[in-house]
Specification:
Blueprint (H helix, E strand, L loop, with lengths): L1 H16 L5 E6 L4 H16 L3 E6 L23 H10 L3 E4 L3 H5 L11 E2 L2 H8 L5 E4 L1
Parallel strand pairs: 1-2, 1-5, 2-3, 3-4
Helix pairs in contact: 2-3
C-alpha cells in the first residue's frame, strides 16, 4: 500500500514538474510609452517565471516591430519599449503585428524586425481561445 501511494505521489510530482508552461498572449495597441513599457515588462517577467509569451502588436504599438523602432527610455531601467520587446524575443517570445497594421500604417514586411510577421486572424483567434491561455490587453 505504501509503495502504491509513493508511486502515485511520485507520478503526480513528475507530471506537475513537466507540465506545459503557462501560455500568455499580450495584445498591445496603446501608443503610450508607459503602457507599452509595462506590458513588455510583464511579458519579460512572465518569461522569467516560465511562461511562453506571445505578443500581438497593433495600431501605434505596431511601430515597436519596425527595425528602426526607437523611443524614449523609461525609468527606472532606462530602456525603451522597443528594447523590452527585443529582450522578450531574445528569450523566446514570439511577436506579430496584427493583420491590419501593415496595410494601414504604410509600412511593408521588409521594415519589420527579423522574426516578426503579420498575424493570421484565424490562427490568432484559435490561440486566444485556448482554455489555459492568459490574454492581457493593453
Amino acid at each position: 500500500m505504501k509503495k502504491s501511494l509513493f508511486a502515485a505521489a511520485s507520478l503526480l510530482a513528475f507530471s506537475a514538474a513537466h507540465a506545459d508552461p503557462q501560455a500568455a498572449t499580450i495584445i498591445l495597441n496603446s501608443a503610450s510609452p508607459m503602457t507599452q513599457g509595462i506590458a513588455l515588462v510583464l511579458a519579460n517577467q512572465m518569461q522569467g517565471q516560465g511562461a511562453q509569451v506571445q505578443v500581438l502588436l497593433c495600431d501605434k504599438a505596431g511601430d515597436l516591430a519596425l527595425k528602426e523602432a526607437g523611443g524614449d527610455k523609461l525609468k527606472p531601467q532606462d530602456v525603451t519599449p522597443a528594447q523590452l520587446l527585443d529582450g522578450a524575443i531574445k528569450k523566446g517570445a514570439t511577436a506579430n503585428v496584427c493583420a491590419l497594421y501593415l496595410p494601414n500604417s504604410g509600412n511593408t514586411p521588409d521594415k519589420l524586425k527579423d522574426g516578426i510577421t503579420p498575424a493570421k486572424p484565424d490562427a490568432m483567434a484559435r490561440t486566444v481561445l485556448e482554455a489555459q491561455r492568459k490574454v492581457l490587453v493593453f
